[in-house]
Amino acid sequence: MTDTFRPNKAMITITVMTGAVLSALDTSIVNVALPYMRGNLGASVEEIAWVSTSYILCNVIIMPIIGFLSSRFGRRNFYLASVVMFTVTSMLCGLAWDLNSMIFFRCLQGIGGGALIPISQAILRENYPPEQQGFAMGIFGLGVVMGPALGPTLGGWLTDNYSWPWIFYINVPVGIVNILLTMKFIKDPEFLSRSKGKVDALGLGLMVVGLGALQIMLEEGQQKDWFQSDFITTLAVTAAVGLTLFVIRELSADKPAVNLRLLKDRTFTSGTLIGGVLGISLFASLFLLPMFLQQLLGYPAFDSGLALMPRSVAMAIFMPIVGRLYTVVGARALIGAGLLVNGVSFWQLSRLSLDVGYWDIFFPQVWQGLGFGLIFVALSTVTLSTVEKKDITDASGLYNVVRQVFGSVGIALSATFVTRYETIYHSTLTEHITEYSFTALSWLDSLGGMFFSAGSDGAAAETKGLRMIELLVMRQGAMMAYNQVFFMVAVLFFMSFPLIFLLKDEKKA
Fold it and tell me: Where in the cell (predicted)?
């Protein structure tokens, strides 16, 4: 790192983190507004989901090739163009006149936003000396992890108090400030070489086809009953073939569009895999907890967002502290502690019931805030620690796209498992509700008497009692399904623990 970068280190940090927060926030801010958008745009439930899917899909496609695009056009120019595209298309999303225009603008917004997080990480790595790398990644983690966590809360507030277009309009003034800061403070590093050679069009095409098919399969699989659908089966085959050919092409090309040879580095590869586990658990919990609070406990959308705030606040408190501890304790100890803390926190969630109070949800989230903070800061630092400076932009793109794709896997699998376990547990519980069950008959008599006292005749009272028991069984089955999926996430954290021994121990290095 040259001394040129150090005088404006604080302003460079503010500049790139502004872009990273904008990009991370827009992965989840639209979710609570989808029902309102559906009515205004005249879309079905399946169609309106593409407003969220299209953004994530284009994020995933652009992330692996940011190194290639940065070397071809200059990283500063590419970053500036990405911020401009994100800002302009945010305005166009708010002005969208129908579903097709909305999806088109969201795709462009995803292309612009997808480059902001990896480039921000690369720039922060370059502008902080080795002893401050943990601190830099603590700042980076605040934006990248808290953005999706705060998105539903901010989106709910804007939608309730203004209207859904404001979840996009809010990006515009911040984006303009980011453009001005980028023009003033961001420069290309001296070691970044500009390449004007032949474009690896075949590799790019295979990547787009493979990753695109995989992402659409993950987003649509649950709604279409997975491999019972010919469409999902076709996507799975396309993704498998496309990604296999893509890997073969990139490993054999002289100048590949995506530098997969970086995966030969043991620390980078194991760190990227742990990042995938982090993506699965983070996105799965962001998906499951609001559903649990709204569907089973009856929380409004905004209140469910507020109920998830303890985790975000805990991350905001712990991440800078963890950044300071990194050079003292080392990566393995911090990541190992984070995996164990998160495993315990999800195990606590797997023991919830329908009678939970606020504090039953509060403390597991605080532990998750600590656990995610421990993992993310140390992992973001150590994963890129063995990568050469000239390859950091490529490596950052790979690292972030794996986390994003695994996050989509986490959402898809958690939705599928919740649905399937609901069916299984509902069936199991109803087996015990028979005319020979003393408990079931007592409940039915009690409920029937209550409805009879309220004015219903005998037959109507019995029917209402049966419906009430069915509702109770459905809610209990759903609760057990959520418990099961939370337990599976806990097991995933514990199973990932051995991967930490493949990482370079920064403390001993």
Answer: Cell membrane
CATH numeric code, 275-509: 1.20.1250.20
189 with 68: CB under 8 angstroms? no
Report the C-alpha gap between 217 and 409 in whole angstroms: 10
Cβ atoms within 10 A of the Cβ of 221, count? 20
Residue 16 near residue 123 (C-beta atoms within 8 A)? yes
Q: What is the number of alpha carbons within 13 Å of residue 398 lying toward its C-beta?
A: 26
* pLDDT score of 1: 42
DSSP 346-380: HHHHTT--TT--HHHHHHHHHHHHHHHHHHHHHHH
Domain 1-190 fold: Growth Hormone; Chain: A; (1.20.1250)
Query: How far is Cα 293 from Cα 245, in angstroms, rounded to an integer?
Result: 43
State the CB neighbour count (10 A cutoff) for residue 458: 10
Number of H helices, E strands in the chain: 21, 0
* Angle CA 226–243–208, to nearest 5: 90
Q: 159 Cβ partners below 8 Å, 6+ apart?
A: 32, 33, 36, 166, 167
Sequence-distant (6+) residues with CB within 8 A of 320 are 135, 138, 139, 142
Q: pLDDT for 208-225, tens place per residue?
A: 888 888 878 877 777 777
What is the Cα–Cα distance from 483 to 406, expressed in whole angstroms? 21
Q: 366, 315 in Cβ contact below 8 A?
A: no
* 143 membership: H or E segment, kind and range: helix 133-161
pLDDT at 7 over 60: no
Residue 194 has pLDDT above 70, yes or no: no
Alpha helices in 253-308 (DSSP H): 266-291, 301-307
Q: How far apart are CA 85 and CA 63, in angstroms?
A: 15
